[in-house]
Design goal:
single chain; alpha/beta; Alkaline Phosphatase, subunit A; 11-stranded mixed sheet; 4-stranded antiparallel sheet; 11 helices
């Protein structure tokens, strides 16, 4: 039994602890208030460009020497380029789910490429921004809910959508239909593209998407007579993903109208096509930026550019031909760095200083809380993400992740964790963790598990709490 003096000391210690926590909370809130006070008074338009299967090393600003990407390189030179940003997953749907909902694959509704839609309780970035007064649009690939499901874009905060609902449908670059929702114009469902019927290659879908994205900006330009309503454009292109089915038929699934400007290169045809697709994407980014300047929206628009996962080896391409993973190990469907570390460029003239490079570690599930802070919106509780707005603005990021987590279900059950500079990968529930020191071994070549038992113990303890049980995504009980 404690004495009276011991009880008093305990009460005092507890009071000091509570006061410290309260002061920490106040300092964080004050820091956020100060940060937002430095931003322009008008809320920015937001353009988020997501490439499909573009590797960490596929852009000139990330070390690519053969594929030309001058417009994206210029975007990086005019803003901030992150070298340690991570996708939500190593494949499409779960990566986009993490981006949209703020949860990593241990907690997200969608943890793999199976046909699972977002649920009514899943709150998306678009819903957050719409509640803050933004007009929201999606152009391109959705992948988070098919027709008549709970996960279609108009049920998830998008005022307008044109594109593919299903990621498999998105393999077809010359599809004969797309989905189009815009209730203000009574568009609500499937839209036929007769130019592409009977195998006719009329409309190249990425060209259609590029046109739709620039038109969205033109039509929804904030104007005083409209109340200066800002817009959020999620431009989820399908380049340079392969047409897997065409690749199996012909050996070249990299569909593109022309292989220019690489026609005279002595490369395999499929590699010419891949390079041409990436440069075409770069042209589309350049045209979008030109449109922003023409509409005098350039200085009040924050533009993000990234990719949903690492480079693929589908459609006949060899990801080593252009060193698409850069210095990283692995590709799409790997939990090594090459499968999940992606380019991330952010540009906002007058707010983000040009020419910056940051090694801040963050991930797709941080986008929702970051954008919520940017527009003064309430953040849903219990997210895995944190706001990385300070890092994006070139300020010290005082709030840091203790751990980043991924799981993957196409090869049994695999897991990966980043803790500081440590990266752990488990390829099978029955196998020990592999451990890499990314500060010394970016290419994950030297497994140092045996030399670091205390690090392994910390990560193993974290893995016990990293995920919630899911009937659809069974976790450690999964078998190959």
């Amino acid at each position: 039994m404690m004495s009276k003096s011991q009880i008093l000391r305990t009460i005092l210690a507890l009071a000091l602890l509570l006061a410290s926590v309260a002061m920490d909370g106040l300092s964080i809130a004050q820091e956020q208030t100060n940060r937002l006070a430095q931003l322009p008074p008008l809320r920015p338009n937001i353009v988020f460009i997501l490439a499909d299967d573009l590797g960490y090393g596929d852009l000139g600003c990330y070390g690519q020497t053969q594929i030309k990407t001058p417009n994206i390189d210029k975007l990086a030179a005019e803003g901030i380029r992150f070298t340690s940003c991570y996708a939500g997953s190593t494949v499409c749907a779960p990566s986009r789910c993490a981006l949209m909902t703020g949860f990593h694959t241990g907690h997200a509704t969608i943890r793999g490429n199976a046909a699972v839609p977002l649920q009514p309780g899943d709150v998306t970035v678009a819903e957050i921004l719409k509640s803050a007064g933004y007009h929201t649009g999606l152009v391109g690939k959705w992948g988070l809910g098919d027709e008549d499901s709970t996960g279609i874009p108009p049920k998830k905060g998008f005022d307008e959508f044109v594109g593919y609902l299903n990621q498999t449908h998105a393999h077809d670059y010359y599809t004969d239909y797309l989905w189009h929702y815009d209730l203000k114009r009574a568009l609500n469902g499937r839209e036929e593209l007769p130019e592409n019927r009977a195998g006719q290659h009329g409309l190249y879908t990425p060209d259609l998407f590029a046109m739709a994205a620039t038109n969205f900006i033109r039509i929804n330009r904030p104007e005083p007579r409209k109340g200066n309503q800002p817009f959020f454009l999620y431009f989820a292109d399908i380049i340079p993903h392969a047409n897997d089915e065409e690749g199996k038929r012909s050996g070249n699934g990299m569909q593109v109208p022309t292989d220019a400007p690489y026609s005279k290169q002595s490369w395999p045809q499929v590699e010419k096509n891949k390079a041409a697709m990436i440069t075409r994407l770069d042209d589309d980014v350049g045209n979008l930026m030109k449109r922003l300047k023409e509409m005098k929206l350039d200085e009040n628009t924050i533009v993000f550019f990234t990719s949903d996962n690492g480079p693929h080896k589908e459609g006949g391409v060899d990801p080593t031909f252009f060193k698409s993973s850069g210095p990283l190990r692995g590709i799409k469907r790997d939990l090594y760095e090459g499968g999940i570390r992606v380019p991330m460029i952010v540009r906002w003239p007058g707010v983000i200083k040009p020419g910056q490079v940051s090694d801040q570690v963050w991930a797709f599930w941080d986008v929702l809380p970051m954008l919520a802070e940017l527009v003064h919106a309430k953040v849903p509780e219990h997210l895995d993400g944190i706001s990385t707005l300070p890092a994006i603005l070139g300020q010290p990021q005082t709030n840091q992740h203790a751990f980043l987590y991924w799981e993957f279900h196409e090869r049994g059950f695999q897991q990966a964790v980043r803790m500081g500079d440590w990266k752990a990968v488990r390829l099978d529930p029955g196998k020990p963790l592999e451990l890499y020191d990314l500060s010394r071994d970016l290419g994950e070549k030297n497994n140092v598990t045996d030399q670091n038992p205390e690090v392994i113990a910390k990560i193993e303890a974290y893995l016990q709490t990293a995920r919630t049980a899911s009937e659809k995504w069974p976790g450690a009980s999964a078998k190959r």
